[in-house]
Amino acid sequence: MNLTILGCYAATPRTFTNPTSQLLEIKNHLFLIDCGEGTQVQLRKNKIKFSKINHIFISHLHGDHFFGLVGLISTFALLNRTTDLHVYGPKGIKEIITIQLRLSNSWTHYGLFFHELESKESEIIFEDSKVVVRTIPLKHRVYTNGFLFQEKKGARKLNLQAVQNYKIDTCYYQKIKNGGDITLEDGTVIINEKISFDPEPAKSYAFCSDTVYNEGIVPIIANVDVLYHEATFLQSEAALAQKTMHSTAQEAALIALKANAKTLILGHYSTRYENISLFEAEASLLFSNVLLADDGKLFEF
Amino acid sequence: MNLTILGCYAATPRTFTNPTSQLLEIKNHLFLIDCGEGTQVQLRKNKIKFSKINHIFISHLHGDHFFGLVGLISTFALLNRTTDLHVYGPKGIKEIITIQLRLSNSWTHYGLFFHELESKESEIIFEDSKVVVRTIPLKHRVYTNGFLFQEKKGARKLNLQAVQNYKIDTCYYQKIKNGGDITLEDGTVIINEKISFDPEPAKSYAFCSDTVYNEGIVPIIANVDVLYHEATFLQSEAALAQKTMHSTAQEAALIALKANAKTLILGHYSTRYENISLFEAEASLLFSNVLLADDGKLFEF
């Protein structure tokens, strides 16, 4: 599971800082999360294969999280994309994009599917044999969702030596991987644990931005491996965070602690702070494993 | 009259090339012409005072000419702008912007005025005491206008020495600046040319992008000082230019020649060409005063 931060600063794009966008590589999927202005240039700078992005998740309709979407969709068309593209985002996202494609007379030749969200409860919005994606209802000035990406538990791994010792025929291997016990010809039952190993642990990633401090998300993201939580402000600006419905670094750490997350990544810093290491210092007082997002940074888990 | 090229490459924004946007400084106005994705960052990189832009002209509704507009308008709001902003562009531009501001719940606190264009004839769209702006109907795949910016002829300049020699009272100075003759107390008439100088020549700038080769614009831009004309392709790709309704460098030069322009600036290069000096070479065969636009370049006239 790899996470590339394309942009992680709040509000307006600037010369050296980009609005929110990140790319999650999980089980051979390239999931794009949010798409602020300039995201397509950030994808190029980070040498990411555009064409492999088939799913884009938009948290909310503030410009710093979606103004780059229409440009990316248009560029896909100019690059002669043929694969379907799926966009998940708040109700309204379809109208915003289609009106621009219609008026610019540049409808895409590839399939463009919008999955508009309006539920205030967590729901599954994507699922295949390897990954499931759920919404994390957040509290912000407009309707907002975070997203929980969970790998599914894979098949058990064959204990080849044990299987050969018991002289088990290869036609039973899939049954063993699926967790089944085996009955030998003499009637002996070999329990699965003796002939297989546990599968690789399934990993999970939660993206939570933008949001005010909200303990309501803790049960949804409980025990997550990696939590990205917005920290627009430091605790010294707690009143401003409350007023604008953003979080502080301390609040992000408290959520990570209560959710028993393994790792916390901070981002969505207000550009008022010149030194983002202050965010790490503040969050580390409460939570031990804090990382700082920064534009162009790659996290491997 | 200063022209800053913020972006002058066709199609998609890339790591080192930006889509169309330019800033014209004329008679204390800062006019922004087109606004591709990333324009606000280009404005910052070129250290331009955002807040002084009060008029934005959009040629047509292809993404590489307007996808940066909504972001710029939003950033103006975040920067607490209070001055009115006027946007001139094809019918539809208002709907595109307002739907995004409405759905993102971020309506501007400053006055935002849309002047939607749909005429196929040249028309005056802005005028004050010093400048007039007219549309230049272009031919492209969607409804498109170029823009002709013309300084108005200023007042004549007082010939102070002559005025004092004739002992003309200061109360007549404005009349002289306005071109009037003066009758002295003894009845002698002093013709204006004897007591004043010609005003500074009024300058003009024509922006013509995107367009197929179109001689129909020649009468509108006749004798223009500076013509920016798109040259997406070289003549070797003339068929492609015709098909996509763009121009070649040779065609741009032919328009400059027929319009008796003083200077031709080329831009809107396809990113297929690695060396833009080929455009200058081709156009220079027909027209002597060719300049090449490039991102970040400042032209002073």
Automatic annotation (TrEMBL), chains A, B:
Comment on bound cofactor: Binds 2 Zn(2+) ions.
Class of enzymatic activity (EC top level): hydrolase
Required cofactor(s): Zn(2+)
Catalytic activity, as annotated: Endonucleolytic cleavage of RNA, removing extra 3' nucleotides from tRNA precursor, generating 3' termini of tRNAs. A 3'-hydroxy group is left at the tRNA terminus and a 5'-phosphoryl group is left at the trailer molecule
Gene Ontology molecular function: 3'-tRNA processing endoribonuclease activity; zinc ion binding
Entry keyword NAD: no
SUPFAM superfamilies in the record: Metallo-hydrolase/oxidoreductase
Residues where Zn(2+) 2 binds: 64-65, 210, 268
Residue runs in coiled coils: none
List of catalytic residues: 64 (proton acceptor)
Documented EC number(s): 3.1.26.11
Binding-site list for Zn(2+) 1: 60, 62, 140, 210
Job description of the protein: Zinc phosphodiesterase, which displays some tRNA 3'-processing endonuclease activity. Probably involved in tRNA maturation, by removing a 3'-trailer from precursor tRNA.
Complex formation: Homodimer.
NCBIfam families: PRK00055.1-3, RNase_Z
Protein family membership: Belongs to the RNase Z family.
Full protein name: Ribonuclease Z
Taxonomic source organism: Flavobacterium restrictum
This protein's encoding gene: rnz
